[in-house]
Design brief:
single chain; 266 residues; alpha+beta; 2 domains; six-stranded antiparallel beta barrel; 36% helix; elongated
Length: 266
């Protein structure tokens, strides 16, 4: 059986005794004797009252601290979010500055755009841009980044447009190797890699050469960088060479692009 707590004794015995001493006219000697008897209980009651008061005060301070801690956690989360936003804006500004400087170096008409989505099909490599015909984008404009060519516009609406990337199975660009001047067609196979096909057996193409657009066909301006030849082998027919090309652009990290016309600005 649990022992009675001191404040139970105080409530059951001490309070009625004090009430009786106050209500009834009891002689002083009797009152003194009574107070002497209940003095230990009064001390215990006072101690219990003080303890309860301290417990209450401590509990209040604890919950107040918990409340302040939760508020501080929220403030820290808000500050961390603002810091991340600021850092992202700084990185975006750096990318945009590079892109704008690159645009200024071009001699063709161009429109900057931002990637806002990807085609949901896992077999296609198509991006959605936040600019359309109202902003000057037209079908078959070349799509480039600072590092080089990434694709072309194949569908342009008033407010948005779609670009098919060079690594798509339908991505193609007439190209040449910068030293040997060997010509072929660069495209993808849908797996994220590039190859330069239909090279003549005596083309002189060599590993390490930079591949650029040739300008043939009128879609892509001549001289845009594409990538570097890594390996060369005969194709399945044995009539041509095929070169594996490592793209200069990172197709997985496309955020801002330039849509470039194939004819000079003016």
């Amino acid at each position: 059986m649990r022992p009675r707590r001191p404040y139970y004794l105080f409530a059951v015995f001490v309070l009625p005794a004090l009430f009786a001493l106050q209500k009834y006219q009891i002689s002083d000697p009797v009152q003194i004797m009574a107070l002497s008897v209940i003095k230990p209980l009064l001390v215990v009651g006072e101690s219990a009252s003080s303890a309860l008061s301290r417990i209450g005060s401590t509990a209040f301070r604890f919950w107040d601290a918990v409340s302040q801690y939760d508020a501080m956690k929220q403030q820290v989360a808000v500050l961390e979010s603002k810091v991340m936003q600021t850092q992202e804006l700084e990185r975006e500004n750096v990318r945009l500055k590079k892109l704008l400087d690159f645009r200024d170096s071009l001699k063709v008409r161009s429109v900057s755009a931002r990637v806002i989505g990807w085609d949901p099909s896992p077999w296609r490599k198509i991006v959605i841009l936040d600019k359309g015909t109202r902003h000057g984008i037209q079908k078959d404009m070349a799509v480039i980044v600072v590092e080089g060519l990434i694709g072309r516009i194949f569908n342009a609406g008033p407010e948005t447009s779609k670009a098919i990337l060079l690594i798509d199975i339908d991505g193609r660009a007439s190209a040449l190797a910068d030293n040997s001047r060997a010509q072929g067609a660069v495209g993808g196979d849908g797996t994220g890699t590039l190859s330069m096909r239909y090279l003549n057996l005596d083309s002189g193409a060599a590993v390490g050469e930079t591949v650029i657009t040739s300008g043939i066909g009128g879609v892509f301006p001549k001289g845009i960088r594409i990538g570097k030849i890594e390996t060369i082998s005969r194709d399945e027919t044995g009539l041509h060479l095929t070169a594996a090309v490592r793209a200069f652009a990172d197709f997985k990290k496309i955020e801002e692009v330039l849509c470039v016309a194939s004819y000079p600005e003016g």
